[in-house]
Amino acid sequence: MFLYLLGLVVFYYLYRWFREIPRVPDKGDKYVYITGCDSGFGNLLARHLDELGFCVIASCFTEKGEEDLRKACSGRFTTLHLDVKKNESVDKAAALIKDKVGARGLWAVVNNAGVAIPSAPCDWLTIDDYKSMLDVNLNGVIAVTLSVLPLIKKARGRVVNVASVFGRISPVGGPYTVSKYGVEAFNDSLRRNMVPFGVKVLCIEPGFFKTTVTDSIVLGKSIKQLWEKMPQEVRDDYGPDYLDKVDVMMREKLAKMSDADLMKVVSCMEHAISAVRPRTRYSPGWDAKLFWIPMSYMPTGFADWLLLKEAILPAKAVN
């Protein structure tokens, strides 16, 4: 019986592997619009797709990001400035893309732009802290997608949304997981809405990787700033040594958990864009596959116990 089940599992993965090999033809005629290309996944994906022959339109927040990419990539490559928080910037980018792609339409948009700060326990934050991140990580994704959706429908193309395993489970407080749950919901509703138009909507759910999102120095500075501006009453709840414990945890554990091989994520993005039969969801990273996603299916009480078992507790925690 065991060998029979093992054989079925092996057959399934071999079948899926062969099924997912074919790639779309005529890459040189296909335009791909990527947000958040200054660094990290977006930067690496833009370079990788350019090497594969796609016509890449890479949006950056900084002039330096645009300049570095132009120097490194081919003549097909286009850069533009984009601030996903501003509707006028999103609309201007969409108008430029419409002029560039013409009647063929836009093959794919990759919503990669995102931020990870401010992140902290919920009672450290204000509604403005939530709004600042949601404007980028969620509202920015929706705004960019809607701005070019008619062009994608014309090409019967793809929408690739970068969410996170933290769109499946919330081990930390703050707006990051809220924004990623929102991306998951938008992704699911859009995927079903676009089926009649032949548009594929795919979701990338990475685990921990070494990017600015998991940079312990950046996160540590942000947490320290939040600590210094919050009411003394809240600081007393957590105790004077709480901040130091968090700093040690981030420097020691976050560094060990984060995978340095960003190509694991970029390869999933590339497959979502170029495969004839892409997957609906991709979960790059062993921590995503073996820990976070399985935990998201566990009973809530068990998941809470497991996460709180290793958590740093406030000084006034109730026993």
Tell me the name of the CATH homologous superfamily of the domain at 26-210 and 260-290: NAD(P)-binding Rossmann-like Domain
**What is the distance, rounded to the nearest whole angstrom, between the alpha carbons of the first and last residues?**
48 Å
Helical content stands at: 40-55%
What is the ordering of alpha helices and beta strands? HEHEHEHEHHEHEHHHHEHH
The CATH class of the domain at 26-210 and 260-290 is identified as Alpha Beta
List the total number of helices: 13
Radius of gyration: 21 Å
Number of strands: 7
| CATH-defined architecture of the domain at 26-210 and 260-290 | 3-Layer(aba) Sandwich
Alpha-beta classification:
alpha/beta
Q: What is the spatial order of strands in the main beta sheet?
A: 3-2-1-4-5-6-7
Beta-strand residue fraction: 5-15%
Largest sheet: 7 strands, parallel
Principal-axis shape equals globular
Low-confidence parts, pLDDT < 50 over ≥5 residues?
A: none
**CATH topology (level 3) name of the domain at 26-210 and 260-290:** Rossmann fold
Nearest-integer average pLDDT? 92
GO molecular function, one term: oxidoreductase activity
Family: Belongs to the short-chain dehydrogenases/reductases (SDR) family.
Protein name: Retinol dehydrogenase 3
Keywords: Oxidoreductase
